[in-house]
C-alpha cells in the first residue's frame, strides 16, 4: 500500500474515532478535573457542594438528647421541614436533614450545620468515570480507551512535513511524554 | 423452511423461560435461608452467618465519599456500626441516603486481620502516596481524613487487640449488599 493511501486511511480513522470519542472524552475530562481537585482536598465531595454554618445550640434541659430536644434544634435552625432522623453518640447528637445534617457537641453546645447541593450532570459524569455502573459499561469504557489509543497513534501521522511527526510534532510529542515522567521522578 | 426458522426462534424462548423458573426457585430457597440481623446484635450473630444471605435494617450514618462503595448502618446510637459494601448489582451508595432508614439484603462477609496484614498495612501507610482502600474502615466521623500518625495508632491498637484476643487473627464483619430498599 502506498504511503499516500496509508495516510488517507489514517486520517479517516483519526477523524471518525475522534467524533465517536468526543462525548466520552468530555465526560472523563470534566469529571477528571473534579476528581483531581477532590483528591487534592479542594472539594469535600465530588458529587455534592457543601457549605457549613457554625452556631451555638442550647444544651438539653433534662440532660437527654431526645426527640423533643431535636425538635427544638430544628425550630432554632428552621429545618423542621427537612428533618429525616437523628442519632446520638458519645457526647454528640447528629440530626439528619434531607440535604445535610446538624452536628451538636453535647458537652459544649458547639454546633455545625452542613448543607449540600447536588452537582447535577457532574455527579452522573463521576459515576461513569468511576465505573460504578460495571456490567456492560466496563466493556464500553474499555472500547473507548482503545479508541483513545488509536486516536493518539493516528494523530501522530495526520500531518506530514515540518509540522509532522518528523518535525515540530516530534518535539511536542516528546514534551508530552517527558513531563509526566518528570512528575513521577520528582514526586515519588 | 419458514416453520423451521420459526422453531429456531421459539426454542430459545422456551429455554429462557425454563431457566427463569429455575431462578425463581433459587430466590425462594435464598429467602428461606436468609437470617434477619439487627444492628445492635450484629457482632454476636455475625459469626454464625459468614457467607450466608442476611437482611438487616438500620439508619445510614456514613457513606464513603471515595466512590460510594461502602456505608455504615446504626440504630439510634453510633456505638455499633455495621459496614455494608456494594455488591455487583449496585453501582454506588448515594450520599443522599445519609440519615435514611434502609433494609439491606446481602451476604455476610468476614475479613480476617492478622499480624502479616497489619505489617503490610503499616508499610502502605508509611509510603508517600498511600492507598485509601487499604486498612479497616470504621465509619467514625472523619475516619477518611486520618493522618499517617492516626492510622499508625489504629494499627498499633489493632496489634494490641490481636495480642489480647489470644487468636492469630481478628475478625471484621460486613455485609455485601445484593440490593437494598429505603424505608419511609
Keywords:
heterodimer, A: 188 residues, alpha+beta, 2 domains, 5-stranded antiparallel beta sheet, 5 helices, 5 strands, elongated, B: 184 residues, alpha/beta, OB fold (Dihydrolipoamide Acetyltransferase, E2P), 5-stranded mixed β-barrel, 6 strands, 36% helix, 32% strand
The gross shape of chain A turns out to be elongated
- How many discrete domains of chain B? 1
Order of helices and strands of chain A: HEHEEEEHHH
CATH class of chain B: Mainly Beta
Walk across the major sheet of chain B and give the strand order. Answer: 2-3-4-6-5
Calculate the mean pLDDT score of chain B and round it: 80
Q: How are the strands of the largest sheet of chain A arranged?
A: 1-5-4-3-2
Cα(first) to Cα(last) distance of chain B is 57 Å
Kindly give the count of domains of chain A.
2
Structural classification of chain A: alpha+beta
Low-confidence blocks of residues of chain A? none
The fraction of residues in strands of chain B falls at 25-35%
> N-to-C terminal Cα separation of chain A, in Å?
46 Å
Number of strands of chain A: 5
How much beta of chain A, percentage-wise? 15-25%
Taken in chain order, the helices and strands of chain B follow as HEHEEEEHHE
- The gyration radius over C-alpha positions of chain B equals 21 Å
Would you mind describing this structure in some detail?
The complex is a heterodimer of chains A (188) and B (184). Chain A is an alpha+beta fold and 188 residues long. Chain A has two domains: 3-44 and 121-157, no CATH class; 48-118, no CATH class. Chain A is built from five helices and five strands; from the N terminus they run αβαββββααα. In chain A, helix 1 packs across helix 3 and helix 1 crosses helix 4. The longest helix of chain A has 37 residues, at 3-39. Chain B is α/β, with parallel strands linked by helices. Chain B has a single domain, classed as Beta Barrel (OB fold (Dihydrolipoamide Acetyltransferase, E2P)). Mean pLDDT of chain B is 80; it is low at 6-29. The chains are: A alpha+beta (188), B alpha/beta (184).
Amino acid at each position: 500500500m502506498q504511503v499516500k493511501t496509508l495516510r488517507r486511511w489514517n486520517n479517516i480513522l483519526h477523524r471518525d474515532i475522534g467524533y465517536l470519542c468526543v462525548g466520552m472524552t468530555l465526560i472523563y475530562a470534566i469529571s477528571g478535573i473534579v476528581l483531581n481537585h477532590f483528591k487534592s482536598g479542594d472539594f469535600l465531595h465530588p458529587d455534592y457542594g457543601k457549605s457549613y454554618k457554625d452556631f451555638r445550640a442550647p444544651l438539653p434541659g433534662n440532660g437527654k438528647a431526645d426527640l423533643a430536644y431535636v425538635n427544638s434544634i430544628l425550630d432554632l435552625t428552621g429545618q423542621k421541614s427537612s428533618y429525616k432522623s437523628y442519632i446520638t453518640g458519645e457526647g454528640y447528637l447528629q440530626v439528619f436533614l434531607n440535604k445535610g445534617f446538624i452536628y451538636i457537641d453535647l458537652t459544649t453546645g458547639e454546633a455545625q450545620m452542613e448543607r449540600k447541593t447536588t452537582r447535577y450532570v457532574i455527579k452522573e459524569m463521576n459515576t461513569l468515570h468511576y465505573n460504578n455502573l460495571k456490567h456492560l459499561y466496563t466493556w464500553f469504557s474499555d472500547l473507548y480507551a482503545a479508541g483513545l489509543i488509536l486516536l493518539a497513534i493516528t494523530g501522530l501521522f495526520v500531518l506530514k512535513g515540518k509540522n509532522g511527526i518528523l518535525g515540530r510534532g516530534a518535539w511536542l510529542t516528546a514534551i508530552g511524554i517527558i513531563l509526566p515522567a518528570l512528575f513521577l521522578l520528582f514526586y515519588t | 423452511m419458514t416453520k423451521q426458522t420459526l422453531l429456531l426462534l421459539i426454542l430459545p424462548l422456551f429455554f429462557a423461560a425454563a431457566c427463569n423458573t429455575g431462578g425463581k426457585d433459587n430466590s425462594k430457597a435464598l429467602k428461606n435461608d436468609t437470617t434477619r440481623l439487627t444492628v445492635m446484635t450484629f457482632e454476636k450473630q455475625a459469626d454464625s452467618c459468614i457467607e450466608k444471605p442476611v437482611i438487616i435494617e438500620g439508619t445510614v450514618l456514613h457513606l464513603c465519599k471515595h466512590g460510594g462503595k461502602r456505608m455504615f448502618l446504626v440504630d439510634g446510637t453510633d456505638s455499633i456500626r455495621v459496614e455494608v459494601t456494594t455488591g455487583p448489582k449496585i453501582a454506588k451508595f448515594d450520599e443522599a441516603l445519609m440519615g435514611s432508614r434502609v433494609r439491606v439484603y446481602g451476604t455476610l462477609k468476614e475479613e480476617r486481620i492478622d499480624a502479616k496484614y497489619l505489617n503490610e498495612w503499616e508499610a502502605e501507610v508509611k509510603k508517600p502516596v498511600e492507598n485509601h482502600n487499604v486498612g479497616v474502615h470504621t465509619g467514625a466521623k472523619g475516619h477518611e481524613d486520618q493522618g499517617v500518625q492516626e492510622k499508625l495508632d489504629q494499627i498499633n491498637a489493632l496489634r494490641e487487640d490481636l495480642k489480647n484476643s489470644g487468636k492469630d487473627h481478628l475478625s471484621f464483619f460486613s455485609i455485601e449488599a445484593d440490593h437494598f430498599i429505603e424505608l419511609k
